[in-house]
Specification:
By secondary structure, the protein is an alpha/beta fold. The chain has four domains: 41 residues; 144 residues, 2-enoyl-CoA Hydratase, Chain A, domain 1 (Alpha-Beta Complex), CATH 3.90.226; 59 residues, no CATH class; 45 residues. It contains twelve helices and eleven strands. Strands 1, 2, 4, 5, 6, 8, 9 and 10 form an eight-stranded mixed beta sheet that branches. Strand 1, helix 3 and strand 2 form a beta-alpha-beta unit. It is flat, with a radius of gyration of 28 Å.
Length: 328
């Protein structure tokens, strides 16, 4: 009996020791992750933002009302260390309201510091709207520029519902309430309403281009038929000012009194904490295991849930349907 009691006491001691070391190990891991986060986050001193420099801000991908980007532009505007700004644009466009918000933020910034837009592959629709907010636009010879216009898209699944035997009944206060919708073909009145809204936004967009590029109204309208242009064509049509890359952007800033030898420091988006990213990744892995999927599927889930956006309402975005020229 004594041996059995001693064995139980020993097991309890061993369990307590294991618990202690497990907790200690978890604490070390947590401290390491927190330290990694602060190391990655850095400070103005390490990032070079405290010394005089040229700030580089990227506007990439689909455009929407991006609070983080708007705050970053405001921080660049308020920074005494920023002497000039390179706006790196590579976007097919996005929501009209999103483009408007970023356009206005760039214009406020340009009132305090010289801003030059440097286009990469693409500055179309709302992407071009944002580039035009700068005081000088530089693009590659093969960059894609333009697609000035506005569109509104909605699906009509009424025929599909009919085929599967589903009928949607709607009771509303007036004929144009919630029109157009997914469940019925749009009426002529609904289409006319949306068309009036599109034309109003289009006129506003054309007015911006006319003002920023110093066109007559007729010149702006001639280029605002939705066409896209190469950089070479765009400079000939005065949609941009110059062909080239970042070196040309810096050379233009020099004409505004900015020292061309200043370092170019990219103001990057604020990243999620390393700790949050760690647990988010772990949660996705747990979900894939729960669903009986291989762990490699976590990357696919992240792509589907975190990096996709459905554009609703008025949009200014360049679409390519992939059809060859002449296809019907």
């Amino acid at each position: 009996m004594a041996n059995a009691a001693d064995a139980i006491i020993d097991r309890r001691r061993l369990r307590r020791k294991l618990t202690f070391w497990r907790a200690f190990t978890l604490l070390l891991i947590a401290l390491a992750l927190i330290s990694l986060y602060f190391f990655n986050a850095g400070s103005d001193g390490f990032s070079g933002k405290s010394a005089p420099h040229i700030a580089k801000v990227r506007v990439e991908g689909t455009i929407f009302e991006n609070d983080e980007l708007l705050k970053r532009l405001k921080d660049v505007e308020d920074s005494a260390a920023v002497k000039g700004v390179i706006l790196s644009v590579d976007s097919p466009g996005g929501t009209t309201a999103g483009g408007e918000a970023i356009y206005e933020a760039v214009r406020k910034l340009a009132l305090k510091k010289p801003v030059v837009a440097q286009v990469g592959t693409l500055a179309a629709s709302a992407g071009y709207m944002i580039a035009s907010a700068s005081d000088h636009i530089v693009a590659r010879q093969s960059s894609i520029i333009g697609s000035i216009g506005v569109l509104f898209q909605y699906p009509d699944i009424s025929e599909l519902l009919t085929k599967i035997g589903v009928k949607v009944e709607t009771i509303k206060s007036s004929p144009l309430k919630a029109e157009p919708n997914f469940f019925n073909p749009a009426s002529d009145e609904a289409k006319a309403m949306i068309h009036r809204m599109i034309i109003d936004s289009y006129d506003w967009f054309v007015g911006l281009v006319q003002e920023r590029r110093k066109f007559t109204h007729e010149q702006a309208l001639a280029l605002a038929d939705g066409s896209v242009f190469t950089g070479r064509q765009a400079v000939a049509n005065k949609l941009i000012d110059e062909l080239g890359g970042e070196d040309k952007a810096i050379a233009w800033l020099k004409t505004k009194g900015i020292d061309a030898k200043l370092p170019v420091v990219e103001w990057k988006p604020v990243e999620k904490s390393s700790l949050g990213m760690f647990f988010s990744h772990s949660a996705l892995k747990m979900l894939t295991r729960y669903l009986g999927l291989p762990e490699e599927s976590a990357g696919v889930l992240r792509e589907l849930t975190g990096d996709r956006m459905f554009l609703d309402g008025l949009v200014s975005v360049w679409h390519v349907d992939g059809k060859p020229v002449g296809a019907q």
